[in-house]
Amino acid sequence: MTALARIEARHLARSPLLWLGVALAAASVAPALWSSWPVLTGDDLFAYQSSLLIGAGAVWAGAWLGLRDRASGAADLLAVTPTAPWRLWWGRLAALAAAGAAGFALLFAAILAVSAARGGRGTADLRLLADGALAVVLGGLVGMAVGRSSGSRLVAALAGVLWYLLCMFAADSGMSPAYRLSPALMLEGSRSVEFGFLPDPFWPHPWPGGVSGAV
Amino acid sequence: MASGTHLRIEGLGKSYGGVAALAGLDLELEPGITGLLGPNGAGKTTLIRILATLLAPSAGEVRVNGWRAADAGDRVEIRRRLGYLPQDLGLYPRFTVFEFVDYLAILKELDDVADRHRRVRAALEAVELEDLAGRKIRTLSGGMRRRVGIAQAIVADPELLLLDEPTTGLDPEQRMRFRQLIAGLGAQRTVVLSTHLVEDVAAVCTRVVVLWQGQIRFQGTPTKLRQLADGQVWSSPEDGPSAVASWRTETGAYRVLGPRPSPAATPLPPTVEDGYLLVTARSRQDTAA
Lengths: 215, 289
What we know:
The structure holds 2 protein chains of 2 kinds.
Chain A: H1 2-13, H2 16-35, H3 43-72, H4 75-79, H5 85-117, H6 126-150, H7 153-172, H8 177-181, H9 191-195, H10 206-214
Chain B: E1 7-16, E2 19-29, E3 32-37, H1 44-51, E4 59-64, E5 67-68, H2 72-80, E6 82-85, H3 97-107, H4 113-126, H5 142-154, E7 160-164, H6 172-186, E8 190-194, H7 198-204, E9 207-212, E10 215-220, H8 222-227, E11 233-236, E12 245-248, E13 254-257, E14 266-267, H9 272-288
Helix pairs in contact in B: 3-4, 3-5, 4-5
């Protein structure tokens, strides 16, 4: 399924929906980054927060991927191949994860670069990168499930907006998105409560935690 | 190179909400090209979809080389040998022609990249789309899309090829090339061609099955179907009152299918279409009776 994931990833990398999320995230982070000049610490947090909006874009891109077979009428062609549906969907999920995470990593790096150019620290906590990437991937997965089950473009569009609002609400309430989505992840005093998606075992050590999370 | 399959259908039935689309079909197909003919609603597409393992029958069973379509494990084996062109063809509009056929080739378990790409190029060449391999599907005409559909159906060199209305949207020249392609493929494979275009069947099929209201009303060679109309086709100055079908030709005379319409009528050599029209007319009379 690597070949299939590669084709899908190539298409997702050109997906206007995913890039809409990246553009919205960049537009929303830019004023905050400028207004808090000079940023000496926490610039990676600005970058991290952009994952909320890129996640919405991933929901849209995932939803389109989920409903594409039905919308295009190609479902029959796929159904008569010997490939099991779960293998097809794993390939698509892998592609979505790769494209979504790459989109977030790109913006993350760009924000840090801008911050560094303006006198900020410009260094990244890789765990935040991994955490944000997971948020985007999770958004894509939710979108794919919504698209596949609803088969409706309208529902898919609303799902992206709802995803963003939920994440914003959780962040504004001082609670992590993961807390809202999975109360089981909420452990008092853990970083995942603060930052969301990267499971607790990844947090104690920045480098191994970040790299493992990213993988 | 594919070697064809033995397809066996026994007591096949399919109902939609109490309405029978297929009723007690028995059929055996060997390598060669079988044309499925019948009016709209005869059950052609339902039969093709059951053979393609997309629909489960309400009764009876389908076996391909002994594999039972009803068995999940066997179904995968059948799908490994299957090429399918649906009547309502859906493609991914944002994919290029090459990408789409390649995508289906991956799902058909062609894992070796070099071999797969060679096969994709060969399939596109067979339908004369090699120059458009890099074009987005959304920019293609209906006929070109149909050819993409044919390319994906043949890309994995299937032993069993199911084509539902393959020539819809093709211009006369493309239809002629399609016939050449199918005639070549049918030499080694079992091809089932569902169509309402009798001339396609007459041109390439080695066997014809005529369906009427979910039942087989004729099966045999195109020659036998044509021979059913021997002595029943006339050129006549007047339309016969008991004609099965008649129409005025460019000479001003009527071409009449049925009993001799008038003493002045002269016999004409029948066509496969005449035979088909007779079969459907008799079926209609049987149903009315």
